[in-house]
Amino acid sequence: MDDRLIDSLTAAVSAAPDDLTLRLHLAGLLVDAGRGPEAISHAATVLASDPGSAEARDLMARAMGTPPAADPPVAPADEPAAPAGFDWRAAESDLGGAVGPMFVDGSTEDPGPAPYDVESAGVRLADVGGLSEVKKRLEASFLAPLRNPELRALYGKSLRGGLLLYGPPGCGKTFLAKAVAGELGAAFLHVSLADVLDMYIGQSERNVKELFEVARTSAPCVLFLDELDAIGGKRSLNRSSGARTTVNQLLTELDGVGSDNEGVFVLAATNHPWDVDPALRRPGRLDRTLLVLPPDREAREAILRTHLRDRPVERIDTRRLAKATEGFSGADLAHLCESASENALMDSVGSGQVRMIAMRDFDQALAEIRPSIGPWMETARNVALYANASGEYDDLAKWLRKQR
Ligand SMILES: Nc1ncnc2c1ncn2[C@@H]1O[C@H](COP(=O)(O)OP(=O)(O)O)[C@@H](O)[C@H]1O
Ligand SMILES: [Mg+2]
């Protein structure tokens, strides 16, 4: 019950980020629910625009007293944790259209076949730092055609085929796909291929088949196959025939044998395109590839800002941080922000004094965190040197040459 109210209020707060009263109220509930760290971020946001707020300071102090996220939020079964006398009904009707209904009966929408739910992620393309070239390609290859059926007809562009994103781990392939989902709303199916693989003989193929059936009935849509190497591995590498038939099934489905794939755009991602069966990359299948590289300095600054947006920070020199994080992936940067917050939190717990996250927390974190993409670079170098006869990794080779 409490959790649901918190969810509703969270949605209301993100719809009206400047409503400090609402935010304080949410922070109060979070503290009561034992979700201190989240409460701190809200209290800090209030403090940032109203440094004198006694209520915010008080909440901050209470939040610091509660143990950090270690244990899951507790939802008291029957006893409302809020101060007595608060009029919940009035509050809920005040929130009005800002939040969705608490209950739906599902009669209006078909839930569709089970595990591949059509998602609506909260991330938008604007949240993805850098990668402007990649975003442009995504826009041209399917976002624009998807949005403009008339233009599609005019230019005779069919909405099918696919695009394979590849690059070092943690540089935003999955994140980018989620952002595309955010742009497209319902028309996005996200599948991690590990979910499709099944140890029972024959089940994996059936899963793949079912997956494409769902996609075709949801057309026009984007089907995102994450971690493609888990399934689309070189057939020669797969000793067990089970895996081979799964790849074959995937090939059949991509070709749309016996059915029409019009309106199904396949977006796939992998860290190791060299382990992906070349047959998957022939024309009409995943025929275009796009290299997603680690963020440059500007992009790193943007990513850092995104990750610090909702945290209580003070005088953070993102420019200097961006300079000091050469070679970091997006995930490394996210990890850096996480560690800096942790440092500030532990310090506050230790001293009993609530304080904002400051540069010294970042310096402390920087001393410990190293870029994580080294091993990938080693492999990529070998591929660019010895396995690039056909020139398919030219852009990778070019980038590698630029790295010292
Ligand atoms: N360009 C980016 N902008 C913002 N955050 C990013 C970016 N790239 C990576 N991240 C952060 O790193 C995390 C891991 O990235 P992910 O997309 O899962 O990497 P992968 O390329 O391995 O799929 C993301 O959840 C996000 O927090
Ligand atoms: Mg990924």
UniProtKB/TrEMBL annotation:
It holds the Pfam family AAA_lid_3. InterPro entries: AAA+_ATPase, AAA_ATPase_domain, AAA_lid_3, ATPase_AAA_core, ATPase_AAA_CS, P-loop_NTPase, TPR-like_helical_dom_sf. Residues 159-296 form the AAA+ ATPase domain. One of its GO terms (molecular function) is ATP binding. Keywords: ATP-binding, Coiled coil, Nucleotide-binding. SUPFAM superfamilies: P-loop containing nucleoside triphosphate hydrolases, TPR-like. Belongs to the AAA ATPase family. This is SpoVK/Ycf46/Vps4 family AAA+-type ATPase. It comes from Nocardioides cavernae.
